[in-house]
């Protein structure tokens, strides 16, 4: 049974599409996505994305932290990250001046630098910071950075934590050897010396039961008692903590520091093992997926439509060649080829797109275009156009292609999800663009880091949700296009 | 001198069953400012003659020969590109059978009327639009029709648009291919009046193709009766109607019902011949009540001075 090509303008088709339920929801979802894409540069500038694969850029974030709002379901207060910023920039740590209380221009430290020549040429610097720790869960990590600017002799630095129960604990003392701008890093949570001292301190002073796994960030923030070494039994000692740094040195010296007490929750979408803020990855995943899917779909479907229509309209040899080529290209499996190319060449998103377009010059849409052109070209107004002397090209572009356009739109909407999936699959397999955060790449990373096994749900749910949202939006749109355009599917 | 002079025009189509002799050796003249009506039953080659004159040929053309002279210049000498740019619509335009479909559903009619102007004159949009509006006004359509789409118009309005389109370039010859066949009688009358008026105002020449002898009488100066791919009778309207020469013409006129008369319309026995294997001799002889031996053997030439008919009955010397 032949199905005639209904005569519909693009405007009326769009109107009808929005009036169907699926079309309305699909269109709504698309609008949400587009709003997101427009908002992305404001929320997360491109500079941030360039740093996506740079580990250094994300060091201030906690590792695999859940979204902040997840504490609503946890029923407990979860700790945010406390960052005590340095007073100066790392390159301009000033040398101390005689007996002055230095202002702390940028940071949150209270700062006092004293120089005295009373007992010889000496400098004393004291920096302290008070913070409240009232969460029900222990911090996940502690680390510090110290910048030192000194003459011949490195200062001796001692860092103490004063707990709410007025117990002081010396975190470490050291003579930082790196001069500014190089940083002296103290990853306290993994410092074996600190672990030993914490263990000794707890067991001697509070007769704490010894355990295998010592976590300084737990014991130091735990209520004093026999359980304070046990990660599972210890309870949080809430209240004001004071972090104090004291430095002393011969001669002139300058010093600055930064402390990070990592929490267990971060941002709206949590972080991954590289401490990256997933919100940024997810946000940028939207334009990347959308751009890739839409560009690939538009270019490929339009190419196939125009080529199919051209060949059919002019007929003869070209028609034959294009149709046979379409047959061949239809059975070429694309994913293995893309995998091969991604392995051999640099897998930039543009290469992938280029290959896709190359293999999509002819295809199923070529056949659709042919079937429509074969019907349309027999219509009287085409004959009329020939009679008034319009050239064949003009008839094609003025009369035939406009008739194809509504179908082209439906095909574009329907093929966008396929391309979004394809890009996600490639990224998931690690063959996507390594520099861009995409939903597929985030999922792939989550998979290799066993996110599901460790219960890091946010790392999987959100990128997967993004892919599903985008594909469903386009699928709904495509289906409602189909409903409007395909008389067999029309309701009533 | 004749505006259009068609000599020995032949248009055959190749089909799987054989060669279809749709137009077989047709000759006629059309003087400037006159109307030549080509009358015949369906499938007798009227529309094929029009297609041949406008060179709108399907792919399966078997042979296409003869002479088509427009203002003394043989159009058959032009190549396709020259024919497209110089003749179509500039010199000869056509109003198609079934105007309802001759308009693109996707484009406002104003743009469609302007299209030929843009194609041929390279007119810019504004100028083309202005002329299109003028052309639409000439056929009695309000200027807001410009922005309407084909589906918003009635059949008569669509026909008017198509006529406006055909006249927009002020061609010397307009081919009217059953311009009113899809319209009801009232609209038909309106369109015929419009065509008559336009002919006078714009001094046009029409090649009017119809199956309706009555309708052709409204417009025609000269009438050509076609039967099975051949012209059987050509003559001025004022002599053919009262005094038809060819038996086919006589039968055709007799088959029209008459107003205010008890006389029943006559019918022609038999069916039109198969154009793949036409009957030998006079093609009408199997259905002709006056046929004699010679008719089935030899093709009759035209006899007569003013009103010419191809029939052996009219051979001079035959009583």
Please explain how this structure is put together.
The complex is a heterodimer of chains A (492) and B (319). Chain A is of the alpha+beta class and 492 residues long. Chain A contains 15 helices and nine strands. In chain A, strand 2 (110-116) and strand 3 (122-133) form a beta hairpin. Chain A is elongated and about 110 Å long. Chain A starts with 9 loop residues before the first helix and ends in a 7-residue tail after the last helix. Chain B has a single domain (2-91, 171-314), classed as P-loop containing nucleotide triphosphate hydrolases (Rossmann fold). Helix content of chain B is 29%, strand content 24%. In chain B, the strands form two sheets. An eight-stranded mixed sheet of chain B has the order 6-7-8-3-9-10-12-11, with helices on both faces. In chain B, helix 5 (155-167) packs parallel to helix 6. Chains A and B meet through helix 12 and helix 13 of A and helix 2 and helix 3 of B.
Please describe the biggest sheet of chain B, giving its number of strands, its sense, and whether it closes into a barrel: 8 strands, mixed
Largest interface: A-B, 19 and 27 residues
Strand content of chain A: 5-15%
The CATH superfamily of chain B bears the name P-loop containing nucleotide triphosphate hydrolases
Low-confidence stretches of chain A: none
What's this, in brief?
Chain A has helices spanning 10-19, 21-43, 46-50, 71-74, 192-206, 216-219, 278-314, 316-331, 334-344, 349-359, 364-376, 380-387, 392-428, 439-448, 457-485; strands spanning 82-84, 110-116, 122-133, 141-150, 156-162, 168-174, 184-186, 239-250, 253-262.
């Amino acid at each position: 049974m032949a199905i005639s090509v209904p005569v519909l303008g693009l405007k009326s088709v769009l109107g009808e599409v929005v009036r169907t339920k699926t079309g309305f929801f699909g269109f709504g979802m698309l609008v949400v996505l587009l709003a997101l894409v427009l908002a992305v540069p404001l929320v997360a500038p491109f500079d941030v994305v360039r740093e996506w694969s740079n580990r250094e850029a994300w060091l201030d974030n906690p590792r695999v932290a859940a979204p902040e709002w997840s504490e609503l379901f946890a029923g407990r207060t979860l700790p945010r990250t406390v960052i005590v910023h340095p007073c100066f920039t790392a390159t301009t740590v000033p040398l101390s001046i005689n007996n002055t209380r230095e202002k702390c221009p940028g940071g949150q430290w209270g700062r006092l630098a004293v120089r005295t020549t009373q007992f010889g040429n000496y400098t004393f610097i004291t920096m302290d910071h008070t913070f409240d720790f009232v969460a029900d869960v222990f911090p996940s990590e502690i680390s510090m950075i110290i910048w030192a600017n000194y003459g011949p002799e490195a200062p001796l630095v001692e860092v103490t934590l004063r707990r709410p129960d007025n117990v002081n604990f010396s975190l470490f003392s050291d003579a930082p050897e790196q001069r500014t701008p190089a940083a002296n890093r103290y990853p306290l949570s993994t410092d074996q010396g600190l672990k030993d001292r914490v263990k000794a301190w707890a067991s001697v002073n509070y007769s704490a039961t010894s355990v295998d796994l010592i976590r300084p960030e737990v014991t130091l923030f735990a209520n004093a008692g026999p359980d304070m070494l046990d990660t599972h039994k210890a309870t949080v000692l809430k209240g004001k903590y004071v972090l104090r740094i004291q430095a002393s040195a011969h001669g002139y010296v300058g010093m600055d520091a930064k402390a990070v007490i990592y929490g267990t929750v971060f941002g709206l979408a949590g972080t991954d093992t590289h401490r990256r803020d997933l919100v940024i990855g997810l946000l940028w995943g939207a334009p990347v997926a959308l751009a890739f899917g839409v560009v690939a779909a538009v270019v490929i479907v339009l190419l196939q439509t125009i080529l199919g229509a051209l060949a059919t309209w002019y007929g003869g040899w070209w028609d034959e060649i294009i149709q046979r080529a379409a047959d061949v290209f239809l059975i070429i499996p694309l994913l293995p080829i893309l995998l091969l190319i991604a392995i051999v060449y640099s897998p930039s998103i543009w290469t992938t797109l280029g290959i896709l377009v190359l293999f999509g010059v002819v295809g199923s849409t070529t056949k659709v275009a042919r079937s429509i052109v074969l019907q349309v070209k027999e219509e009287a107004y085409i004959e009329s156009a020939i009679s008034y002397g319009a050239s064949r090209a003009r008839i094609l572009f003025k009369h035939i292609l406009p008739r194809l356009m509504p179908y082209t739109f439906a095909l574009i909407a329907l093929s966008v999800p396929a391309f979004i999936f394809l890009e996600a699959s490639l990224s998931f397999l690690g063959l996507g663009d390594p520099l861009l955060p995409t939903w597929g790449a985030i999922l792939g990373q989550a998979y290799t880091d066993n996110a599901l096994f460790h219960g890091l749900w946010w790392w999987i749910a959100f990128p997967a949700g993004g892919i599903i949202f985008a594909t469903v939006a386009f699928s709904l749109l495509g289906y409602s296009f189909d409903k409007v355009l395909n008389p067999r599917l029309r309701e009533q | 001198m004749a505006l259009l002079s068609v000599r020995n025009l032949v248009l055959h189509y190749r089909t799987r069953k054989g060669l279809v002799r749709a137009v077989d050796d047709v000759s006629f003249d059309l003087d400037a400012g006159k109307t030549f009506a080509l009358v015949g039953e369906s499938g007798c080659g009227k529309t094929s003659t029009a297609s041949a004159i406008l060179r709108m040929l399907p792919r399966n053309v078997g042979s296409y020969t003869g002479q088509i002279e427009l203002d003394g210049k043989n159009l058959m000498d032009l190549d396709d590109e020259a024919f497209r740019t110089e003749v179509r619509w500039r010199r000869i335009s056509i109003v198609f059978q079934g105007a309802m479909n001759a308009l693109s559903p996707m484009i406002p009619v104003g743009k469609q009327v302007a299209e030929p102007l843009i194609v041929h004159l390279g007119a810019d949009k504004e100028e083309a639009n202005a002329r299109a509006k003028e052309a639409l006004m000439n056929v009695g359509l309000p200027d807001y029709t410009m922005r309407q789409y084909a589906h918003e118009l009635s059949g008569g309005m669509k026909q008017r648009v198509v006529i406006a389109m055909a006249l927009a370039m002020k061609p010397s010859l307009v081919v009217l291919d059953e311009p009113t066949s899809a319209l009801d009688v009232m609209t038909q009358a309106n369109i015929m009046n419009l065509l008559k008026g336009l002919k006078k105002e714009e001094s046009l020449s029409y090649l009017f193709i119809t199956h309706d002898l009555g309708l052709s009488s409204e417009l025609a100066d000269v009438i050509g009766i076609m039967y099975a791919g051949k012209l059987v009778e050509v003559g001025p309207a004022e002599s053919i109607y009262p005094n038809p020469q060819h038996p086919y013409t006589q039968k055709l006129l007799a088959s029209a019902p008459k107003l205010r008369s008890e006389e029943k319309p006559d019918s022609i026995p038999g069916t039109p011949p198969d154009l793949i294997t036409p009957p030998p001799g006079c093609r009408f002889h199997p259905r002709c009540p006056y046929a004699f031996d010679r008719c089935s053997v030899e093709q009759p030439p035209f006899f007569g001075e003013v009103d010419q008919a191809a029939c052996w009955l009219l051979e001079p010397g035959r009583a």
